[in-house]
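Thanks for the sequence, V.! I ran Anaphase-promoting complex subunit 4-like WD40 domain-containing protein right away. Repeating your input here for the record:
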Amino acid sequence: MIFTNSISFIVINLPSIWCMNMVLTKLSLPALLKISSEKNTVKHLKKDIKQLNMKLSQLQALLEEKEAQLSRLKNNSETIKYANIGQTKNSTLASGVNEESLLLSTNSSEACATTATHMGSAEMGQTWASSRPALSRFATNMSGNDSISPSKLEFEDVGAGDIIQMFNDGLYTENGRDAQGEEDFPEVKVDFLETFLGHTSPISCCRFSSSGNNIASASVDGTVRIWTYDSSTPASRNATIYCGTEIMSLEWECKSDRLLLIGTADGGIKAWNVDAKRVVCDLNTTDAFPSVLDLKCSPVEPIFVSAAASRRYGSSNIYSWGFASLTVWNMKTWKAMTVLPLGEDPPAITSLCFNHNGKILAASAVDGMIHMFDMSAGLQITGWPAHDSAISSILFGPDETSIFSLGSDGKIIEWSLQNQGQVLWTRNCSRFCDPESSKSCRHEMALDVNGRRLLVTSGSVRAPIYQVRGHASGMRTLPHGAAITTVDWHPTLPMFLTGSADHSVQVMSLS
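Predicted structure:
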């Protein structure tokens, strides 16, 4: 009897269960459709935001171009005005003035060249004389050929033409005619553009990995993001590293994309393993030198060098660091190996660069000096005063017979390493070095793999790309929405990075 009732109960309730399932299905289908619709809406909104950001950048760039045109028109009108006034003067008087001006210009040029030569000889004669044996080792290490050595141990004469070029680079007019300024450079043509919008604060540093497949970008809020780019898909984030303090330097391991070194303002050096997605080593400099201004890995040995500096309190200028410390670290034991000698109370080191075989390390300082170290001996072998202001960035030339330096005043100089002290090429990009932005970020430069194009940071929404030692005009990058604070070139391809105060990073491939 009990069994019969149970069967009856099941039979009676089967339709009820079926009805409940139908009701649930009807309820869930609209909910699913609503969720799908909301996802599509969010996706479209993100796309619209990206397009609006690009349009805003283009409008800001257009506004900047119009302002530059107005400035040039104003200068041209003033030139025409003074020219008309001059034509009303007596022709003899005009001729005399022109002759006097020409004579004054010639004398001034000769005086500048002579002064530059005398300054080089007077201030550097003792340094070069005491460095002769070291300089021979330096030339051997750089080229592997004992027959190549610096032929002169003092500044070479800088020709009058070079001096005039150095001064006229910053002018809009030359010899009464309009000269092409950076604002007139054509916009770079790109095959591929990707914009990474993963940061929420201004970008302080961005670097390609050794293969160029990964990118590390740091923000002023203390975060580092590692991400990849692909022409077929939007940029995807691999990892986010929270450092909790200002990030001052980034450096990838030279032989692989596995390790990323991060230098912070509180003396920390973190080694992040990309595969494991974790910090594998957390080092600390001494309390006396808390600001890790730069990190460089040797291209050959498992070592890296850190440039740390003490802080001078009471000043907000980024070039107000105190004394310098250069430490060599072992990347197998993660311990300090040695401290490179810099002398007593040395000014802060701002930038480091290894040559191709890791035997020579170049370092630039806030007092305008360039230092060269023999890494096998752990000693400084030479150095010279390169700028009247702090040097913010330094790079070896492609054939390593020269070295580039960028001053905080915007002057770029290529120095010969075979005829030490000789200027091979120079540009003045001071109009891009905004004094206000220089207080919060270091200007830097990057060379392409062929060493023919030099990309420089900018206080404007566009950055200049100079043709090194060429007569061809330069180029301008595509615009950001704010100042361009960091740059880097791909290690093998004609592709570069620009990070901006508008929180974005752009990857551009040249056509």
